[in-house]
Amino acid sequence: MLSARTVLTRTARLSNARLNSTLVVAEHDETKLAPITLNAITAAGKLGNDVSVLVTGANAQKVAEQVAKVNGVKRVLVAQDDKLKNNLPERVAPVVLASQKQFNFSAITAGSSAFGRGLIPRVAAKLDVSSISDITQVHSADSFTRTLYAGNAVKKVKSSAAVKLLTFRGTAFEPAKEGGSGAVEKAPSADIATDTSEFLGQELSKSERPDLATAKIVVSGGRGLKSGDNFKLIYELADKLGAGVGASRAAVDAGYVPNDMQVGQTGKIVAPELYIAIGISGAIQHLAGMKDSKTIVAINKDPDAPIFQVADIGLKADLFKAVPELTAALK
């Protein structure tokens, strides 16, 4: 028979175990896990806590089984409901809050993607705490470095909140590897309202080229290409290199290419081995999305273009002459 002191001690230990745990909200397409979630799992592990992952969706079980095999994941919570199809932040948030109510996580996190940036501040508001976005370093469970001003500055911040609401910059952390055996269980039930948001549809670009988020080489074009037709110069060079294709916001706003190709603070954040910027001036907004690339090459006829300040290799030249010559020279 256990004494009252023993029961209290064991209860306290269980309570502490709950408090010292981090929840990562998974991003996926109902078939496979988004790469940025693997980066977020690595970052969450640096908080020094057990890592749980919440997988929501109309068909969440398959993805949950993938997550359970990721190294460092202790528990996978699955919320499978037709109401969660397409994972609208307004509908995922109640599931996160129900999970928090049951498990009392010390941190709730996600990747700094459109999904994470739409969800985490919403949950933070419901919990009446502030969220910290775009974290690039984890120093301790309550101390972080984040990027500011479109990536042009960094700031070290410390949070005293009982629960931290965080999004991690994917390019700042290595993706978590396979090798885990997390337990899969049903997430707490939640009241999911369907009258405040509706999914109308989406248009996805299909390409045989590598995905921007995972490509080892990225070739991006800017407003200097002058038209969408001229982007064929970018595509031809990318195909020779086996590269993904990106664009500046100026090129997207001009209608040269679809917005899912945009690299920058309000687009995709990439950090390939090689980034080639062609006809891109190098506005701060664009630099925020690619400045962590290992090697940056810039081709621009303007010698004062800001892109040359971050480029490892710069070529002052007319892109309409230089790019075809470069493409022709590649085997």
From TrEMBL:
Necessary cofactors: FAD
Residues of the Electron transfer flavoprotein alpha/beta-subunit N-terminal domain: 22-203
Any one biological process term the GO annotation gives: fatty acid beta-oxidation using acyl-CoA dehydrogenase
Entry's Gene Ontology cellular component terms: electron transfer flavoprotein complex; mitochondrial matrix
Residues where FAD binds: 223, 248-249, 262-266, 279-286, 300
Pfam annotation, one family: ETF_alpha
Alphabetic keyword roster: Electron transport, FAD, Flavoprotein, Mitochondrion, Transport
CDD domains in alphabetical order: ETF_alpha (cd01715)
Cofactor binding, note field: Binds 1 FAD per dimer.
Compartmental location: Mitochondrion matrix
GO molecular function term, any single one: electron transfer activity
Superkingdom per UniProt: Eukaryota
InterPro entries: DHS-like_NAD/FAD-binding_dom, ETF_a/b_N, ETF_a/FixB, ETF_alpha_N, ETF_asu_C, ETF_asu_C_CS, Rossmann-like_a/b/a_fold
TM regions (residue ranges): none
Subunit structure: Heterodimer of an alpha and a beta subunit.
Function summary: The electron transfer flavoprotein serves as a specific electron acceptor for several dehydrogenases, including five acyl-CoA dehydrogenases, glutaryl-CoA and sarcosine dehydrogenase. It transfers the electrons to the main mitochondrial respiratory chain via ETF-ubiquinone oxidoreductase (ETF dehydrogenase).
PANTHER family referenced in this protein's UniProt entry, alphabetically: ELECTRON TRANSFER FLAVOPROTEIN ALPHA (PTHR43153), ELECTRON TRANSFER FLAVOPROTEIN SUBUNIT ALPHA, MITOCHONDRIAL (PTHR43153:SF1)
Similarity field: Belongs to the ETF alpha-subunit/FixB family.
Name recorded for this polypeptide: Electron transfer flavoprotein subunit alpha
